[in-house]
Design a protein that fits this description.
The protein is α+β, with helices and mostly antiparallel strands. It contains ten helices and 13 strands. It folds into three domains: 68 residues; 161 residues, Nuclear Transport Factor 2, Chain: A; 187 residues, endopeptidase fold (from Nostoc punctiforme) (Alpha-Beta Complex).
Length: 441
């Protein structure tokens, strides 16, 4: 009898714990979370990260401070709209995933075509401009087209094709609106205008979207589209569609401890394996060779500060990658490993890396007799490029993974996922400085 009572009590405790936990999780989903480190319940923290990862309840605002998540409220009237008689005919209940994927790719590829043609007039029909979210999304795409057109003209290249494919992760029908969490993979093809024999150069970009479609005049269009944009920092000068994307700042700082003077009797950094790792695990970008997935051995910091430094450290230190010895203050999850400024300071301070040069795009590509292509000509595969938006702190890291047909450095990164992307693409704001870091070994 006593044993039976114990079993009943134990069962009641389990049920209470489950429902109490769910209530706690639902409470956290609905609030603004300022600092994830304030939560001590590891299981709860894990579920919050997964909620954010799959965009079920919240969206990421990339410019907010680390660990700050914002509750999604992007369709305040969508459910009410779905209840009206006039919209019942647009019910999305019966749409299948293949049809949905086809519609999204139709829209995204029409949008990508504008990158090639430069014609933004055709973009309007892809968006629901009857409400502000659609207008904002349209304005953002116009800026992207203008920027890429300017960027390519200044480098004397032409994009021949830009293709987009998507992988839908989650679907949430809401009345007459379909909300989705999806990954988009871009492939960009370009040639050099001053080279009659220029081969086609290609690079890839992967973007995570929280997007919504609505049917207008029997055609699906974008209601809103939230994502971390690889061009974001270059678009600040395009509020009025500025004529030039690059307003260079003076000054370039050459390091006295350039990498030519350093040598090791036994190299500990394998550049070829580092590049192979970067190509394999570059995520959602076209060109990734791991089914568009990160290395599951490591945490994914997308949405809680960014994953770029974590990825760069993996490339340097993982045994499958560069094989640089891991230890001391540089271990997975540490500031030196996962924080951009922390990684830069660690590499330079430890002597494992040396700064080639720091400066703007104009500074680093300035011609000289010794370096015809500028300081960027000293980069090697497996080296790093760090990006500084404002004076004082590095904000992003990328790994040099190759060079195009004219020797232009190409990089891979996370947040946004990039595969063999021109090293400065998306970083055209006048305040941007670049740190070229050689890895010693």
């Amino acid at each position: 009898m006593i044993k039976r009572h114990k079993h009943v009590i134990f069962f009641i405790l389990i049920i209470s714990s489950i429902f109490g936990y769910k209530a706690k999780l639902n409470y956290v989903k609905g609030m603004q979370l300022k600092n994830l480190t304030e939560i001590t319940d590891e299981k709860l923290k894990y579920n919050i990260l997964n909620v954010n990862k799959y965009n079920q309840e919240c969206i990421v605002v990339s410019n907010l401070p680390k660990y700050k998540l914002v509750q999604s409220n992007i369709e305040p009237n969508s459910e009410k709209q779905g209840e009206t008689d006039s919209n019942k005919k647009n019910s999305v209940e019966n749409i299948d995933e293949n049809q949905l994927k086809s519609e999204v790719e139709r829209i995204y590829n029409a949008r990508s075509a504008a990158f090639v043609s430069g014609d933004v007039s055709s973009l309007k029909e892809l968006f629901d401009t009857s409400q502000r979210y659609g207008k904002w999304a349209l304005e953002h795409e116009i800026k992207r087209v203008k920027y890429l057109n300017d960027w390519s003209n200044e480098r004397n290249i032409t994009f021949g094709k830009v293709a987009s494919s998507v992988r839908i992760k989650k679907v949430y029908p809401r009345g007459n609106i379909i909300k989705m969490a999806l990954q988009e993979s871009y492939k960009f093809d370009y040639v050099y205008n001053n080279d009659d024999n220029s081969p086609i150069n290609s690079f890839g970009v992967g973007i995570r979207h929280t997007t919504s479609l609505i049917k207008k005049n029997d055609k699906w269009v974008i209601y809103n589209d939230w994502y971390t944009d690889c061009f974001e920092d270059a678009l600040r000068g395009y509020s009025n569609v500025a004529d030039s994307i690059l307003r260079m700042l003076p000054n370039i700082h050459d390091s006295n401890n350039g990498h030519e003077a350093l040598s090791y009797s036994k190299p500990f950094y394998n550049r070829e394996k580092a590049v192979a790792y970067a190509d394999k695990y570059c995520g959602a970008a076209w060109g990734s060779s791991n089914n568009f997935k990160y290395n599951k051995k490591y945490s994914d910091y997308n949405g809680i500060g960014g994953d770029c430094s974590n990825f760069a450290s993996q490339v340097l230190g993982d045994k499958e990658g560069g094989g640089m010895p891991i230890g001391g203050s540089w271990t997975p999850g540490s500031r030196a490993w996962s924080n951009a400024d922390g990684l830069k300071n660690y590499l330079v301070g430890s002597g494992r890396g040396s700064i080639i040069s720091v400066g703007t795009f104009k500074d680093l590509t300035k011609f000289s007799e010794r370096l015809p292509s500028g300081a960027v000509g000293k980069l090697q595969i497996g080296d790093l490029v760090a990006y500084e938006k404002g004076r004082g702190n590095v904000d992003h890291f990328a790994v040099v993974t190759g060079f195009d047909s004219h020797g232009y450095p190409l990089v891979n990164s996370h947040t946004t996922d990039r595969y063999h992307v021109p090293w400065d693409l998306g970083w055209g704001d006048a305040k941007i400085r670049f740190f070229l870091i050689h890895i010693n070994g």
